């Protein structure tokens, strides 16, 4: 299962995400997709969010834990933080 939380992103992009994920609240998307689709969606989210914020959490099959991938834009530059199990 994948959970994505998006803030301050274009409405059209949120509509695009509903092709693969269910929007259960404004900016909160959940669904089951393959690892390949999940990674491609995340790359698209990072590319399209601009000055907004986003985070993704998903379950890793080999370990009983979740992986959290935050993306935060600081002073107009994209800053990536490495993922680590929560």
Describe the structure.
It is globular, with a radius of gyration of 12 Å. With 86 residues, it is of the alpha+beta class. It has a single domain (2-85), classed as Alpha-Beta Plaits. A hairpin with a 2-residue loop joins strand 2 (22-25) and strand 3. Strands 1, 2, 3, 4, 5, 6 and 7 form a 7-stranded antiparallel β-sheet that branches. It has helices at residues 11-17, 35-48; strands spanning 2-7, 22-25, 28-31, 53-60, 65-74, 77-80, 84-85.
Low-confidence stretches: 73-82
SSE ordering: EHEEHEEEE
Radius of gyration, whole Å: 12 Å
Q: Tell how many strands the DSSP assignment holds.
A: 7
Helix content: 10-25%
What is the chains' assembly state?
A: single chain
Write the layout of secondary structure elements.
Elements: E1 2-7, H1 11-17, E2 22-25, E3 28-31, H2 35-48, E4 53-60, E5 65-74, E6 77-80, E7 84-85
Antiparallel strand pairs: 1-3, 1-4, 2-3, 4-5, 5-6, 5-7
